[in-house]
Design a protein that fits this description.
Blueprint: H1 6-14, H2 24-36, E1 40-47, E2 50-57, E3 63-68, E4 79-81, E5 84-86, H3 94-109, E6 114-119, H4 127-134, E7 144-147, E8 155-159, E9 161-170, H5 185-193, E10 203-204, E11 208-209, E12 211-219, E13 229-238, H6 242-253, E14 258-265, E15 268-269, E16 278-281, E17 295-298, E18 313-315, H7 316-334
Parallel strand pairs: 3-6, 3-7, 7-17, 8-16
Antiparallel strand pairs: 1-2, 2-6, 4-5, 5-18, 8-15, 9-13, 9-14, 10-11, 12-13
Amino acid sequence: MPTTDPLPLAVDLMRVESTSGREGAVVALAERLLAERGWTVQRIPVSPGRDDLLATSGRDPVATLSTHLDTVPPYVPPRVEGETLFGRGACDAKGIAAAMVCAGERLRGRGVPVALLLVVGEETAHDGAHAANASPLRPPTARVLIDGEPTESTLAVGTKGALRFTLRTRGRAAHSAYPHLGDSATARLVRLLSELDGLALPADPLLGATTVHVGMLAGGVADNVIAPWAEARLMARLVTSPESALELFTRWVDGRAEVEPGVSVPPVRLGVVPGFATSVAAFATDIPALGAWGAPFLFGPGSIHVAHTDDEHVPIAELRAAVDAYERLVVGAVG
């Protein structure tokens, strides 16, 4: 039976906890629900026990609607209060997945072949997107990718990139009553991090400023021991290439800490369609890892400002309006 209202489907998906790395149950649910609605559904292996889903209708789909089924922790169960859907994944991005399914079924009813790509791992290493990009299951006709993230129902003209990196300092343990006999790694790290706010970072006329924050801190072995080690995990939002950003941060550190780069994605300029309000997204997406799927567009209901919070939500009216918007986007982007 075709799905016309994204709300029940969004709630069904949100009832299943799917923190990144533990997406198996929600992928199985989505696979069953799509198959029941007549989609041709195939799994794209990502890692043991983890798969993306590719669902197609008709032959030779040109456009692909794609978003992710994984979420950040902690799990927050769904609830409807008045005209708002609350819970983990409401806007990032299970509500979006539900709206895309409904839009796909409308398009299918019009005889427009379309693909749905539901990936895992977006919130961490983008490994689901990388697996999909390399998959032989990708339709050879695919040339338009409409990615779903919460953009407040605007069409993003660009997204910042991202760089995760760890700073690690080494010291020498000693009894805390005799600090001169040791070398505090935590003190070294704190002094270094205190310079972050004064660091000159690149800016871009379209994408805005590069930003960086300290996400996690760790170090030491006990409160009465001079800390022999310390580390900070940082994330920068980029308007330049990850390579140039890493070089900048490495020059700033200047040997005062070890610099260990992590996952990175570049900034991206995106396509537009007449009739849609536009914006710039400061967050990173799967789009850089899905280059083989065609010209990228980015749109989604809800606000990134409430994603990743305990108050994550999306207005139900906006969620329902996204169905029409995705349908119009496919038609407009394909031409």
